[in-house]
User: Which sequence fits this backbone?
């Protein structure tokens, strides 16, 4: 495969890239594979060679930084060797050299907190997690968290490298299954992940008691997040989100939802724990945003599996609730079906729930379902997958 024309400029005729223990031809092939394939696997939100951040921002840093360069071509080597199914000799060699080079940088207090160093370490965490080395992956995440702390927080990192500030918390969440960084408040104050401007502009509502939410006893924390997402996804209110906006919104909202305390702040009629309806909406919103966002930087399958299990528990807890037998139930089950589309057992469970609700609510077509979904929370970007899942479901009903 030849390089696409816009990437040709990334290759210097004098081969000015960091030295490795691999033959020049092999290195150049891995460089080509990174720029033509890996960059877009990592960041499918931008398929333009002239603007994809891994091509225009990451790669120039890698060409000048031996540690990041080794980590980068290691991702390309892993991809090649996974496809070939003949072991990982080159990747293991590059891993050993990558770790050695990263350790040298960490030994220098200035180099240790560079964007390049954080990029390299968080990528090593993803690589180790993908190989099943969870302890090593966690060690790298702990290391990059310390680097962020030294830099003054993730909001400070974002000032010099938006790509690093996006990748570090997102990959950290995906490989650990829990948020590793805090979030700013709804007005953008604090050192954590920042809300997008549309979130800050959204009306602050801590009570939802109309339409499908009437009498649902949704606590203030969940109602606030849901109301802001409703505002952002209202097509008459907001212009279409950019790819960067969508990622930042997803990262912020998912972190905020997963960081909610066990005891709600002022909602739920004095409940000491979050009401089941709120918990159902909470986990369904996490999955909804992950489905809308898609895979970026690293597979989110492990996180999705964990949240799917939580959503199933909440749906079971609401089995006798009137709220499950209406738009909220249809929406939560639809989100589950979409999120678990590649998980046979979990998807079958949600399909069975959907089949029951379809009969009970006399839903016979996708348009019937769509009306229910639009009354809760909806973005057109999710329609193809949701529609496909429901059409398959209807095909199983006699």
Assistant:
């Amino acid at each position: 495969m030849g390089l696409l024309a816009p990437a040709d400029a990334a290759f210097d005729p004098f081969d000015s890239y960091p030295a490795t223990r691999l033959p020049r031809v092999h290195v150049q092939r891995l460089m080509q594979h990174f720029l033509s394939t890996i960059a877009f696997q990592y960041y499918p939100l931008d398929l333009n060679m002239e603007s994809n951040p891994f091509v225009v921002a990451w790669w120039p840093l890698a060409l000048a930084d031996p540690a990041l360069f080794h980590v980068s071509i290691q991702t390309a080597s892993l991809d090649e060797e996974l496809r070939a199914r003949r072991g990982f000799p080159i990747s293991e060699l590059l891993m050993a050299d990558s770790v050695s080079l990263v350790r040298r940088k960490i030994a220098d207090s200035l180099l240790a907190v560079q964007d390049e160093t954080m990029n390299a370490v968080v990528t090593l965490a993803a690589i180790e997690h993908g190989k099943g080395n969870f302890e090593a992956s966690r060690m790298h995440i702990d290391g990059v968290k310390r680097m962020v702390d030294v830099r003054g927080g993730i909001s400070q990192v974002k000032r010099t490298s938006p790509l690093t500030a996006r990748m570090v918390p997102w990959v950290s969440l995906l490989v650990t299954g829990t948020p590793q960084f805090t979030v700013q408040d709804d007005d953008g104050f604090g050192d954590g992940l920042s809300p997008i401007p549309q979130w800050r502009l959204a009306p602050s509502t801590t009570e939802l008691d109309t339409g499908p939410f009437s009498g649902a006893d949704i606590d203030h924390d969940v109602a606030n997040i849901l109301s802001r997402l409703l505002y952002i996804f209202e097509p008459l209110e907001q212009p279409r989100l950019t790819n960067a906006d969508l990622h930042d919104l997803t990262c912020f909202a998912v972190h905020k939802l997963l960081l909610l305390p066990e005891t709600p702040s002022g909602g739920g009629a004095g409940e000491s724990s979050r009401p089941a309806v709120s918990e159902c909406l909470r986990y369904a919103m996490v999955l909804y945003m992950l489905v809308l966002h898609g895979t970026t930087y690293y597979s989110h399958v492990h996180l999705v599996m964990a949240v799917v299990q939580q959503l199933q528990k909440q749906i079971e807890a609401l089995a006798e609730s009137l709220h499950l037998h209406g738009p909220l139930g249809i929406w939560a089950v639809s989100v589950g079906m979409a999120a678990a589309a590649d998980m046979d057992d979990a998807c079958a469970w949600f399909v069975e729930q959907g089949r029951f609700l379809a009969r009970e609510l006399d839903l016979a077509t996708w348009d019937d379902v769509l009306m229910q979904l639009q009354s809760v929370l909806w973005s057109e970007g999710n329609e193809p997958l949701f529609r496909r899942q429901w059409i398959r479901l209807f095909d199983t009903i006699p």
Observations:
- Residues 5-176 form one domain.
- The longest helix spans residues 24-42.
